[in-house]
Write a structure and sequence with these properties.
three-stranded antiparallel beta sheet, alpha+beta, Enolase-like, domain 1
Length: 80
């Protein structure tokens, strides 16, 4: 299943998340801090959705109440 998510309150504009049998197969992020988001993408590939949510939910970016990792967790919660 491929999900398209439009993050809110962060620099990234779009996330494409491929999930199969509860495991993240691929994450593509458009916009945002390219190097950091490539790193996050590689780290979550192969990770169970629930584990990714547990690790990323609630992370803040500077004085923002959210971050790209937190927005990814919010997107993944919609799949659970």
């Amino acid at each position: 299943m491929t999900m398209e998510y439009r993050p809110r309150g962060v620099c990234s504009r779009r996330m494409l998340i491929d999930v199969e049998d509860g495991v993240i197969q691929r994450l593509q992020v458009q916009g945002g801090c390219n190097g950091n988001l490539q790193g996050i993408s590689r780290l979550v590939e192969g990770m169970n959705v629930e584990e990714a949510i547990r690790r990323l939910d609630g992370i803040h970016c500077g004085d923002k109440s959210t971050s790209c990792p937190d927005q990814l967790a919010q997107a993944l919660k919609q799949l659970s």
